[in-house]
Amino acid sequence: MLMVDPMKRATIKDVIAHEWFQKDLPAYLFPPVNESEASIVDIEAVREVTERYNVPEEEVTAALLGDDPHHHLSIAYNLIVDNKRIADETAKLTIEEFYQVAPNKLHYSDQHRHPERIAAAVSNKITPTLENAAAGDASFNNMAALQSTGYKSGIKRAKWHLGIRSQSRPEDIMYEVFRAMKSLDMEWKVLNPYHVIARKKPENPVADPPKMSLQLYQVDQRSYLLDFKSLVDDESSPGSACSSRHASMSMPSKPPGMRSSRQTVSMDVDPSPPPSPSGAKLSQTMQFFEMCASLIGTLAR
Fold first, then answer.
1. Looking at the domain that runs over 162-233+283-300, which CATH code has it been given?
2. Which GO CC annotations does the UniProt entry carry (predicted)?
Protein backbone atom coordinates (compact mmCIF):
# COMPACT_ATOMS: atom_id res chain seq x y z
CA MET A 1 0.00 0.00 0.00
CA LEU A 2 3.00 2.34 0.46
CA MET A 3 4.37 1.76 -3.03
CA VAL A 4 4.91 4.93 -5.06
CA ASP A 5 3.89 3.25 -8.29
CA PRO A 6 0.07 3.00 -8.18
CA MET A 7 0.15 -0.08 -10.39
CA LYS A 8 2.14 -1.96 -7.77
CA ARG A 9 0.04 -1.00 -4.78
CA ALA A 10 -2.25 -3.47 -3.10
CA THR A 11 -5.81 -3.40 -4.35
CA ILE A 12 -8.91 -3.55 -2.18
CA LYS A 13 -9.26 -7.20 -3.06
CA ASP A 14 -5.72 -7.88 -1.84
CA VAL A 15 -6.33 -5.95 1.37
CA ILE A 16 -9.51 -7.88 2.14
CA ALA A 17 -7.71 -11.18 1.51
CA HIS A 18 -4.82 -10.26 3.82
CA GLU A 19 -4.62 -12.18 7.10
CA TRP A 20 -4.24 -9.01 9.14
CA PHE A 21 -7.46 -7.62 7.70
CA GLN A 22 -9.44 -10.79 8.35
CA LYS A 23 -8.48 -10.95 12.03
CA ASP A 24 -11.17 -9.93 14.60
CA LEU A 25 -13.53 -8.55 11.98
CA PRO A 26 -17.15 -7.85 12.99
CA ALA A 27 -19.66 -10.26 11.53
CA TYR A 28 -21.83 -7.57 9.94
CA LEU A 29 -19.08 -6.86 7.37
CA PHE A 30 -19.58 -10.32 5.88
CA PRO A 31 -23.27 -11.21 6.06
CA PRO A 32 -24.09 -14.77 5.03
CA VAL A 33 -25.46 -15.11 1.53
CA ASN A 34 -29.00 -16.45 1.58
CA GLU A 35 -29.37 -18.42 -1.63
CA SER A 36 -33.16 -18.53 -1.41
CA GLU A 37 -33.40 -14.75 -1.10
CA ALA A 38 -30.77 -14.18 -3.80
CA SER A 39 -32.75 -16.28 -6.27
CA ILE A 40 -35.98 -14.33 -5.70
CA VAL A 41 -36.36 -11.16 -7.73
CA ASP A 42 -38.26 -8.26 -6.16
CA ILE A 43 -40.72 -7.15 -8.83
CA GLU A 44 -41.40 -3.78 -7.15
CA ALA A 45 -37.68 -3.00 -7.05
CA VAL A 46 -37.36 -3.99 -10.71
CA ARG A 47 -40.23 -1.66 -11.64
CA GLU A 48 -38.68 1.17 -9.67
CA VAL A 49 -35.38 0.68 -11.55
CA THR A 50 -37.20 0.71 -14.88
CA GLU A 51 -38.96 3.95 -13.95
CA ARG A 52 -35.77 5.64 -12.80
CA TYR A 53 -33.61 4.61 -15.79
CA ASN A 54 -36.40 4.41 -18.39
CA VAL A 55 -35.45 0.89 -19.47
CA PRO A 56 -37.60 -2.23 -20.02
CA GLU A 57 -37.96 -4.86 -17.32
CA GLU A 58 -36.27 -7.48 -19.48
CA GLU A 59 -33.06 -5.46 -19.50
CA VAL A 60 -33.06 -5.14 -15.71
CA THR A 61 -33.73 -8.87 -15.31
CA ALA A 62 -30.91 -9.68 -17.73
CA ALA A 63 -28.53 -7.49 -15.72
CA LEU A 64 -29.49 -9.31 -12.52
CA LEU A 65 -28.98 -12.73 -14.07
CA GLY A 66 -25.62 -11.73 -15.55
CA ASP A 67 -22.26 -12.24 -13.89
CA ASP A 68 -21.37 -8.55 -13.75
CA PRO A 69 -21.98 -7.30 -10.18
CA HIS A 70 -20.84 -3.79 -11.18
CA HIS A 71 -23.61 -3.27 -13.74
CA HIS A 72 -25.38 0.01 -13.01
CA LEU A 73 -28.85 -1.59 -13.17
CA SER A 74 -27.76 -4.37 -10.80
CA ILE A 75 -26.28 -1.84 -8.38
CA ALA A 76 -29.46 0.26 -8.45
CA TYR A 77 -31.60 -2.83 -7.83
CA ASN A 78 -29.47 -3.94 -4.86
CA LEU A 79 -29.57 -0.45 -3.33
CA ILE A 80 -33.36 -0.33 -3.55
CA VAL A 81 -33.70 -3.81 -2.01
CA ASP A 82 -31.29 -2.91 0.81
CA ASN A 83 -33.20 0.28 1.60
CA LYS A 84 -36.48 -1.62 1.77
CA ARG A 85 -34.96 -4.24 4.07
CA ILE A 86 -33.52 -1.58 6.38
CA ALA A 87 -36.89 0.18 6.53
CA ASP A 88 -38.67 -3.08 7.40
CA GLU A 89 -36.16 -3.90 10.14
CA THR A 90 -36.49 -0.41 11.61
CA ALA A 91 -40.28 -0.71 11.67
CA LYS A 92 -40.07 -4.09 13.42
CA LEU A 93 -37.62 -2.69 15.97
CA THR A 94 -39.90 0.26 16.70
CA ILE A 95 -42.88 -2.04 17.30
CA GLU A 96 -40.83 -4.29 19.59
CA GLU A 97 -39.65 -1.30 21.62
CA PHE A 98 -43.25 -0.11 21.93
CA TYR A 99 -44.42 -3.42 23.37
CA GLN A 100 -41.38 -3.70 25.65
CA VAL A 101 -42.17 -0.44 27.46
CA ALA A 102 -42.75 -1.10 31.14
CA PRO A 103 -46.38 -0.46 32.15
CA ASN A 104 -45.28 1.55 35.17
CA LYS A 105 -43.62 4.13 32.92
CA LEU A 106 -46.89 4.83 31.14
CA HIS A 107 -48.35 6.24 34.37
CA TYR A 108 -45.20 8.05 35.44
CA SER A 109 -46.74 11.48 34.97
CA ASP A 110 -49.80 10.54 37.02
CA GLN A 111 -47.68 9.21 39.87
CA HIS A 112 -45.49 12.32 39.98
CA ARG A 113 -48.05 15.09 39.79
CA HIS A 114 -47.25 18.49 41.20
CA PRO A 115 -47.97 18.61 44.96
CA GLU A 116 -50.03 21.80 44.61
CA ARG A 117 -52.23 20.18 41.95
CA ILE A 118 -52.64 17.14 44.19
CA ALA A 119 -53.69 19.44 47.02
CA ALA A 120 -56.26 21.16 44.81
CA ALA A 121 -57.68 17.84 43.61
CA VAL A 122 -57.93 16.48 47.15
CA SER A 123 -59.49 19.66 48.52
CA ASN A 124 -62.19 19.58 45.82
CA LYS A 125 -63.16 16.06 46.84
CA ILE A 126 -63.48 16.82 50.58
CA THR A 127 -67.10 17.53 51.58
CA PRO A 128 -67.53 19.71 54.72
CA THR A 129 -69.99 17.35 56.42
CA LEU A 130 -69.76 15.51 59.71
CA GLU A 131 -70.16 12.14 58.01
CA ASN A 132 -67.13 12.70 55.77
CA ALA A 133 -64.95 14.45 58.33
CA ALA A 134 -62.86 11.35 59.01
CA ALA A 135 -62.45 10.66 55.31
CA GLY A 136 -61.42 14.30 54.77
CA ASP A 137 -58.79 14.07 57.52
CA ALA A 138 -57.41 10.86 56.01
CA SER A 139 -57.25 12.44 52.55
CA PHE A 140 -55.52 15.49 53.97
CA ASN A 141 -52.97 13.31 55.75
CA ASN A 142 -52.33 11.35 52.56
CA MET A 143 -51.92 14.60 50.66
CA ALA A 144 -49.44 15.90 53.22
CA ALA A 145 -47.47 12.66 52.99
CA LEU A 146 -47.38 12.96 49.20
CA GLN A 147 -46.19 16.54 49.48
CA SER A 148 -43.38 15.66 51.89
CA THR A 149 -42.34 12.73 49.71
CA GLY A 150 -42.38 14.91 46.61
CA TYR A 151 -40.27 17.61 48.24
CA LYS A 152 -37.72 15.05 49.44
CA SER A 153 -37.44 13.53 45.99
CA GLY A 154 -36.40 16.87 44.52
CA ILE A 155 -39.63 18.14 42.92
CA LYS A 156 -39.31 21.84 42.17
CA ARG A 157 -41.99 24.11 43.58
CA ALA A 158 -43.71 26.74 41.47
CA LYS A 159 -42.05 30.14 41.38
CA TRP A 160 -43.87 33.16 42.75
CA HIS A 161 -43.21 36.78 41.89
CA LEU A 162 -44.14 40.14 43.35
CA GLY A 163 -46.18 42.19 40.91
CA ILE A 164 -46.97 41.49 37.28
CA ARG A 165 -44.42 39.84 35.02
CA SER A 166 -44.39 40.41 31.26
CA GLN A 167 -42.20 39.84 28.20
CA SER A 168 -43.55 42.85 26.31
CA ARG A 169 -41.49 45.94 25.62
CA PRO A 170 -41.17 48.29 28.61
CA GLU A 171 -42.80 51.13 26.62
CA ASP A 172 -45.79 48.91 25.88
CA ILE A 173 -46.07 47.85 29.51
CA MET A 174 -46.08 51.43 30.78
CA TYR A 175 -48.58 52.40 28.07
CA GLU A 176 -50.96 49.73 29.36
CA VAL A 177 -50.39 50.91 32.94
CA PHE A 178 -51.28 54.52 32.07
CA ARG A 179 -54.29 53.36 30.08
CA ALA A 180 -55.52 51.24 33.01
CA MET A 181 -55.05 54.08 35.51
CA LYS A 182 -56.95 56.46 33.25
CA SER A 183 -59.84 54.02 32.86
CA LEU A 184 -59.99 53.64 36.67
CA ASP A 185 -60.09 57.46 37.08
CA MET A 186 -56.86 57.53 39.08
CA GLU A 187 -54.36 60.34 39.62
CA TRP A 188 -50.63 59.87 39.24
CA LYS A 189 -47.30 61.63 39.37
CA VAL A 190 -44.46 60.56 37.06
CA LEU A 191 -41.11 60.23 38.85
CA ASN A 192 -39.43 58.78 35.75
CA PRO A 193 -40.68 56.97 32.61
CA TYR A 194 -40.86 53.67 34.52
CA HIS A 195 -41.82 54.82 38.02
CA VAL A 196 -45.06 56.55 39.00
CA ILE A 197 -46.98 57.26 42.19
CA ALA A 198 -50.74 56.82 41.87
CA ARG A 199 -53.89 57.05 43.95
CA LYS A 200 -57.63 57.09 43.52
CA LYS A 201 -59.15 60.48 42.78
CA PRO A 202 -60.49 61.76 46.14
CA GLU A 203 -64.25 62.12 46.40
CA ASN A 204 -63.91 65.33 48.42
CA PRO A 205 -61.00 67.75 48.88
CA VAL A 206 -60.56 66.81 52.53
CA ALA A 207 -60.10 63.08 51.88
CA ASP A 208 -56.56 61.76 51.56
CA PRO A 209 -56.68 58.36 49.79
CA PRO A 210 -53.67 56.07 50.13
CA LYS A 211 -50.96 56.21 47.50
CA MET A 212 -49.07 53.43 45.84
CA SER A 213 -45.88 53.24 43.81
CA LEU A 214 -45.73 51.45 40.45
CA GLN A 215 -42.20 50.71 39.26
CA LEU A 216 -41.01 48.59 36.35
CA TYR A 217 -37.94 46.38 36.88
CA GLN A 218 -35.98 44.29 34.40
CA VAL A 219 -35.85 40.70 35.70
CA ASP A 220 -33.75 39.18 32.93
CA GLN A 221 -32.91 39.80 29.30
CA ARG A 222 -36.45 39.24 28.05
CA SER A 223 -38.88 39.81 30.93
CA TYR A 224 -39.89 42.73 33.13
CA LEU A 225 -41.66 42.99 36.49
CA LEU A 226 -44.18 45.68 37.46
CA ASP A 227 -43.91 46.03 41.24
CA PHE A 228 -46.63 47.44 43.51
CA LYS A 229 -45.65 49.31 46.68
CA SER A 230 -47.86 50.76 49.36
CA LEU A 231 -46.99 54.30 50.49
CA VAL A 232 -48.49 54.78 53.95
CA ASP A 233 -47.64 57.02 56.88
CA ASP A 234 -43.96 58.01 56.84
CA GLU A 235 -43.17 55.51 54.06
CA SER A 236 -44.16 57.84 51.24
CA SER A 237 -40.74 57.74 49.61
CA PRO A 238 -40.41 54.99 47.04
CA GLY A 239 -37.18 53.71 48.54
CA SER A 240 -38.69 52.84 51.91
CA ALA A 241 -42.01 51.50 50.75
CA CYS A 242 -43.26 48.05 51.61
CA SER A 243 -43.81 45.62 48.77
CA SER A 244 -47.19 44.07 48.32
CA ARG A 245 -47.57 40.37 47.67
CA HIS A 246 -49.12 39.27 44.41
CA ALA A 247 -48.75 36.16 42.33
CA SER A 248 -47.27 36.56 38.86
CA MET A 249 -49.75 37.32 36.10
CA SER A 250 -49.19 37.52 32.36
CA MET A 251 -49.63 40.88 30.66
CA PRO A 252 -52.01 41.27 27.72
CA SER A 253 -50.70 41.17 24.21
CA LYS A 254 -48.80 44.14 22.83
CA PRO A 255 -50.97 47.11 21.87
CA PRO A 256 -51.45 47.78 18.17
CA GLY A 257 -49.58 51.06 18.30
CA MET A 258 -47.60 53.25 20.66
CA ARG A 259 -49.08 56.48 21.96
CA SER A 260 -47.70 59.24 24.06
CA SER A 261 -48.58 58.12 27.57
CA ARG A 262 -46.16 59.97 29.79
CA GLN A 263 -48.64 62.72 30.62
CA THR A 264 -48.93 63.80 34.24
CA VAL A 265 -52.20 64.37 36.05
CA SER A 266 -51.86 66.98 38.74
CA MET A 267 -51.74 65.37 42.16
CA ASP A 268 -50.49 66.67 45.46
CA VAL A 269 -48.05 64.22 47.00
CA ASP A 270 -47.58 64.95 50.65
CA PRO A 271 -44.31 63.36 51.81
CA SER A 272 -45.35 63.49 55.47
CA PRO A 273 -49.01 62.58 55.94
CA PRO A 274 -50.46 62.97 59.42
CA PRO A 275 -50.12 59.94 61.68
CA SER A 276 -53.14 57.69 61.77
CA PRO A 277 -54.27 55.10 64.30
CA SER A 278 -53.97 51.37 63.68
CA GLY A 279 -57.55 51.16 62.40
CA ALA A 280 -56.94 53.82 59.77
CA LYS A 281 -53.68 52.11 58.78
CA LEU A 282 -55.54 48.83 58.29
CA SER A 283 -58.11 50.65 56.19
CA GLN A 284 -55.34 52.12 54.04
CA THR A 285 -53.87 48.65 53.55
CA MET A 286 -57.23 47.28 52.42
CA GLN A 287 -57.67 50.21 50.04
CA PHE A 288 -54.20 49.52 48.66
CA PHE A 289 -55.14 45.90 47.98
CA GLU A 290 -58.37 47.05 46.31
CA MET A 291 -56.41 49.41 44.04
CA CYS A 292 -54.00 46.62 43.14
CA ALA A 293 -56.84 44.23 42.36
CA SER A 294 -58.62 46.80 40.20
CA LEU A 295 -55.44 47.68 38.31
CA ILE A 296 -54.48 44.04 37.74
CA GLY A 297 -57.98 43.21 36.54
CA THR A 298 -57.93 46.13 34.10
CA LEU A 299 -54.49 45.16 32.78
CA ALA A 300 -55.63 41.58 32.24
CA ARG A 301 -58.52 42.57 29.97
1. 3.30.310.80
2. cytoplasm
